[in-house]
Amino acid sequence: VKSTTAVNATVTVCKPPQQPVIPDRSVFLAGSIEMGKAEDWQAKLTSTLSNLDLPYHLTVLNPRRESWDPSWIQDISNPQFRGQIEWELDCQDRADVIAMYLHPDDEGSISLLELGLLAESGKMVVCCPEGFSSRGNVQIVCKRYGISLVGSMDELVQEVVKRLGELPAPQDTKTHMDGISWLPTETLGLQKTVTGRFSHRLSLLMSWFLLNNCWLAYAALRSRLDVATIAKDGTADDNKTSLSLTLK
């Protein structure tokens, strides 16, 4: 599904099992779904974003699956269910902003699991209207981890747009696997952006490299000091011998 804003900036919606191609900025829509029973707030938020004059391309990662089957067994052994959850986890990793809406009529157990999982990501904006059963818990968690917390859909949209606008100009961070839809889900799940898990591993490798170089430099310096000490001791012994012969 695609729609174009008044300034010709395109908003692309990606739903599972489609693998996303993210050319610019992205937002993941977390929160109430309730197996397709909850209000389709994702469609409302997407429509609002599509009608804004966004000066960038926005990819909306919407986990509300069109072909969801409520009879699917929610177990890791079920490939359809596992594929859905892994799609969500991968997209949460890749998204620039994660917008969460907690509907007052939704029990929200899975949404609260997501909140705990993503609280320290630095990406979250949470909308928790009055009436949500665990609103107090949400307030405390958001305060603890510095998460933006709002009370209405309009405020959620405003905060999402603000956060997206604060992002630096995008670079080509797509992997060579982006857009390859014929690969199996397990392979596509390995996609990583440069700013994601790969950069963390790269920083660890660079840290190891620097520490290794420091150790080599220290060893070389220690070796030179040892040689200098030996040479100094040898000179001192020669001076003592010369002085002894002179006295005799």
Automatic annotation (TrEMBL):
Origin superkingdom: Eukaryota
- Pfam families per record: Nuc_deoxyri_tr2 (PF15891)
**Record protein name field:** Uncharacterized protein
Q: From what organism does this protein derive? A: Dendrothele bispora (strain CBS 962.96)
